[in-house]
Amino acid sequence: MHLQESGEMYLETIYVLSLEKNAVRSIDIANHMGFSKPSVTRGLGLLKDDGFIEKDSDGHIILTEKGRNHAIRIYERHTLLTDLFIKIGVDEQTAADDACRIEHYISDKTFDAIKAYIKKKELQS
């Protein structure tokens, strides 16, 4: 199943927030993303229906294994691409913004090739 960019952004946000906090709530997501609470509620509902997240009895959002795997993949793309762009001379904000756009559209094949290239270059250094 291919998620739309917005779904991937929600998963990535939940993942990042879960690294910072013990419990992630929809208001945390809304504040982090700058979205309205109703928009977040709708987006989370779609992710729940598709099996990417669950909510516990206190209303905390929890990534399922499927959701966590997808979130980690997107987050890895974001961080690797951001770092790469900074290394080639792009300022940090532009690098992060561009990585955020690209991470949703780059193919696995191209991303894996970039990862392999970076690893090879780091080993040669």
Secondary-structure topology with pairs:
Elements (H helix, E strand, L loop, with lengths): L4 H16 L5 H8 L3 H13 L3 E3 L5 E3 L1 H23 L4 H11 L5 H17 L1
Antiparallel strand pairs: 1-2
Helix pairs in contact: 1-2, 1-3, 1-4, 2-3, 4-5
Question: Which keywords apply here?
Answer:
2 domains; WH-like_DNA-bd_sf; 2 strands; 5% strand; transition metal ion binding; Arc Repressor Mutant, subunit A; 125 residues; Iron (Metal) dependent repressor, DtxR family; HTH_DTXR; two-stranded antiparallel ribbon
Would you mind describing this structure in some detail?
It is built from 6 helices and 2 strands. It has 125 residues and is mainly alpha-helical. The protein folds into 2 domains: 5-69, Winged helix-like DNA-binding domain superfamily/Winged helix DNA-binding domain (Arc Repressor Mutant, subunit A, Orthogonal Bundle); 76-116, no CATH class. Helix 1 (5-20) crosses helix 2 (26-33), helix 1 (5-20) packs across helix 3 (37-49) and helix 2 crosses helix 3.
Strand residues, percent: under 5%
**What does the radius of gyration come to?**
16 Å
End-to-end separation: 39 Å
Order of helices and strands: HHHEEHHH
User: Which spans have pLDDT < 50 for at least 5 consecutive residues?
Assistant: none
Count of beta strands: 2
Instruction: Give the averaged pLDDT, no decimals.
Output: 94
CATH superfamily of the largest domain: Winged helix-like DNA-binding domain superfamily/Winged helix DNA-binding domain
Helix vs. strand class:
mainly alpha
**Major sheet attributes:** 2 strands, antiparallel
CATH class designation of the largest domain:
Mainly Alpha
CATH architecture of the largest domain: Orthogonal Bundle
Helicity range of the residues? over 70%
Number of domains: 2
The CATH topology of the largest domain corresponds to: Arc Repressor Mutant, subunit A
Overall shape: elongated
Largest sheet, spatial ordering of strands: 1-2
